[in-house]
Amino acid sequence: MRDAYHEELDSISDSLVEMARLVGSAIGRATTAMLDSDLKLAENVIEADQKVDELQHDLEARAIALLARQQPVATDLRIVVTSLRMSADLERSGDLAQHVAKLARLRYPDRAVPSDLHATILEMGQLAQRLMAKAAEVIITKDVDLALQLEQDDDEMDLLHRTLFQHLMDDRWKHGIETAVDVTLLGRYYERFADHAVSVAKRVVYLVTGEHADELQTDVQPEIQAVSEAESA
Amino acid sequence: MRDAYHEELDSISDSLVEMARLVGSAIGRATTAMLDSDLKLAENVIEADQKVDELQHDLEARAIALLARQQPVATDLRIVVTSLRMSADLERSGDLAQHVAKLARLRYPDRAVPSDLHATILEMGQLAQRLMAKAAEVIITKDVDLALQLEQDDDEMDLLHRTLFQHLMDDRWKHGIETAVDVTLLGRYYERFADHAVSVAKRVVYLVTGEHADELQTDVQPEIQAVSEAESA
């Protein structure tokens, strides 16, 4: 009976890894769709999010069934509850990738991102994808050092976000309001995506060490800090 | 033993109601702080969010202890798991209220919101507060009809959000990029806050009816719809 139980726990972990891989791929492809103004790719990303939602629903049902049938305690209980939270983070990340793709679709055949911000957005998209790939690896390996690395990578995202705001606030901005709104929302999507990847990794740290890794500090509204720092720069 | 158990379940529900009341008050006060450029009130809201975070941590610990000690099944298990999710929604709503307050603080002594958008933002703030008050009432009464009402109220938020975007995209916009960025983020904060209130209510519907009330459709990125509709208008 315990064996079937641990198999089920493993399968929940496998689903989390699959979700992380799907949303990591989604943010990468959404970024490409936006930078290339590729409508087909954008629609592909938008549709693919359904798979992530299905995985989450399925994972939740299995986690709740596991709680009911096996009534785990101590560490095992914590693993199941934490998995539910991680799946919520990953589902939300999928939504954010979808938001990027929807923006690409909305602006098609135009490009939402002006050419002087192309490189910054590309970097944000790649970093977001890398963060999620590392989060998946952390789920598999339970490597606390790697998990803590994600926070440093997230600092890099904050830096890119600040660069974006510096462009926006620059007097020489010549792309108009619509593009400013698009870029503001895009910056927010990437930053939130990164936050969720970091959050997944932190939850693994909590499982392994029992310590919270200041979980509540995940989103201290870096975009406002960015505005602030951009303006005082 | 079952009595102590149900008392503990009730106390979890009480904490959820308290969290909803705190974050409802916070979004109202943050809106006032922003519209009046009231620094003291803004700082008050920013500090008060700690209480919400503490309540959530405490609620989670009690929910997990309850799962371990009492090993509930069926409906009771669903109540505990759903409470964990609602607390996450409420904690996040608190963050969003704090974001509004931080924007007020950042722009002080200036006003982040230009006077021709004052009424719209006031309405968004009031509606957000009302939605959260209803969500609290739904937690207490488990009134499914009231819960479904929240979705209609949320349509009103989408309408206000669209109005905001129409202003932004209007050729006569004369408030510059910085204000456009502020207003874009504000719109997103209110809209997400409303989504979380609706989500809390939907989770109660799920508990009462066992049906999902298309939970996954909660955030279909209305701000992009708004941009789209504003532009085609």
UniProtKB/TrEMBL annotation, chains A, B:
One Pfam family in the UniProt entry: PhoU
Leader peptide range in chain numbering: none
Main location as per UniProt: cytoplasm
Domain PhoU: 16-103, 121-204
The keyword Cell membrane is assigned to this record: no
InterPro entries according to UniProt: PhoU (IPR028366), PhoU-like_sf (IPR038078), PhoU_dom (IPR026022)
Transport found in the keyword field: yes
SUPFAM superfamilies linked to this entry: PhoU-like
PANTHER family: PHOSPHATE-SPECIFIC TRANSPORT SYSTEM ACCESSORY PROTEIN PHOU
Its biological purpose: Plays a role in the regulation of phosphate uptake.
Family note: Belongs to the PhoU family.
Subunit structure: Homodimer.
Stated name of the protein: Phosphate-specific transport system accessory protein PhoU
Organism: Streptomyces purpurascens
Gene this chain is encoded by: phoU
